[in-house]
Amino acid sequence: MMLEHKFCQPETVLTVTEGAGISGYASLFDQTDQGGDRVGRGAYVASLAALTAKGRAVKMLWQHDPTQPIGVWDEVREDARGLWVKGRILTDVARGREAAALVAAGAIDGLSIGYRTVRATKDDRGGRLLSELELWEVSLVTFPMLPDARVAAKAEDPGDAALRDLAAVFTDARAALRQG
User: Fold this and answer.
1) Which GO molecular function annotations are given, in alphabetical order (predicted)?
2) Architecture in CATH for domain 4-179
3) E strands, the chain, where?
4) Tell me: the pLDDT tens digits for 123-154?
């Protein structure tokens, strides 16, 4: 079984809130990453259901290192935009203290998923459409692979449709400006 990783670069600054809380999108649907892959809607449904049924959770790691858990994801769910995560960096753990400080300073601002591909198809651009993934972990990372992935601002919740819609407008406008 091969573990793969997908990195997400937030559009906004990744922030640590009270008690080292952190939230954001670890994966965005239908956006091509730097490796040419896209994650399709519903790709995480079976994996998240299986974890819940077993009473297990997605792990929070530092830079995909399985020997360095740095916190817990209290909420991991799919919504219309992607894979939303919300959790706590554990500052009682030495690496967790370092991670919280680096995020607060803006030195670390990426999220990345660790997974095994269950189902994927080749697309006409040489990449893959990942339609089912077995999600193992979501890491805080230095170098994300998906530049347009979005990490939520301090008080934002993906349940607020107005904020999501407004963010999508800005994202689309920025993409249009880049294309000229």
Assistant:
1) peptidase activity
2) Alpha-Beta Barrel (3.20)
3) 4-8, 21-28, 38-39, 59-62, 65-78, 82-89, 110-122, 128-141
4) 888 899 999 999 999 999 887 776 655 444 34
